[in-house]
Design goal:
229 residues; alpha+beta; 3 helices; DUF1510
Length: 229
């Protein structure tokens, strides 16, 4: 009897220990399940979505700053380009102004030659012949310029450059433009570099006899104008 009781006691004690170990293992498993479940819940799609939304909000908040920076950069470029354009426009305006002044000065020179060719001239009655009404000599007359080069020989061919420049000198001395001029005669005046021409103003009918002389590299220069009767 005694041995049987001891055997039962030992078996009961073993079962109790086995149940205790089993309960401990079950508890550990439950704890692990809770931990894993909590971890899964923390990383759930909903929470991930919330995190993504939060990140998007932050990016959206920063975006205007970036846009402002780009806008500011564009404005700087526009301002710089505007400054360059303004500078270029100013230079163009100055250049145009200088051209206008040059043209105005040239126009003034032309007017001084054509409007009043006898200003400052010495005018005397009569002249080299009885057909001369008065004689005009102007010390301010200058050569009219030339496109010719090299040694000069007077040419009385109406199609030549020399003929064209002779008429320019006569027009300069009398104030009669070439398109308002009828050439009556143009030829030699006694020297290889001296010429004389007789012309008539188409509009007024005034007649002039003009003596001119060649100045090397400067062209024909008037020396005397006689207004004919």
């Amino acid at each position: 009897m005694s041995k049987t009781r001891e055997s039962r006691f030992e078996n009961r004690d073993k079962r109790r220990k086995a149940n205790l170990v089993l309960n401990i293992l079950i508890g550990i498993v439950l704890v692990l399940i809770v931990v894993v479940a909590s971890s899964l819940m923390m990383n759930s799609p909903k929470e991930q979505a919330q995190q993504d939304v939060s990140k998007n909000d932050e990016q959206t908040t920063e975006a205007p700053a970036s846009g402002n920076k780009k806008q500011t950069s564009d404005e700087d470029i526009k301002d710089e380009n505007k400054g360059k354009n303004d500078s270029a426009d100013k230079k163009d305006a100055e250049s145009d102004s200088e051209k206008d002044k040059d043209q105005e000065n040239a126009s003034d020179d032309d007017k001084s030659k054509s409007d009043d060719p006898f200003e400052g001239a010495e005018v005397t009655e009569g002249g080299s012949s009885g057909n001369v009404e008065k004689t005009i000599i102007n010390p301010n007359w200058e050569p009219v310029g030339t496109k010719q080069s090299g040694e000069h020989t007077a040419t009385y061919d109406s199609s030549s450059q020399d003929w064209t420049e002779m008429l320019e000198a006569i027009s300069y001395a009398t104030g009669v433009s070439k398109d308002n001029m009828t050439v009556i005669w143009l030829g030699n005046n006694g020297g290889p570099q001296d010429a004389k021409g007789t012309i008539q103003a188409t509009d007024s009918g005034d007649k002039y006899q003009v003596a001119i002389t060649w100045v090397d590299e400067k062209g024909w220069k008037p020396t005397k104008v006689e207004k004919l009767k």
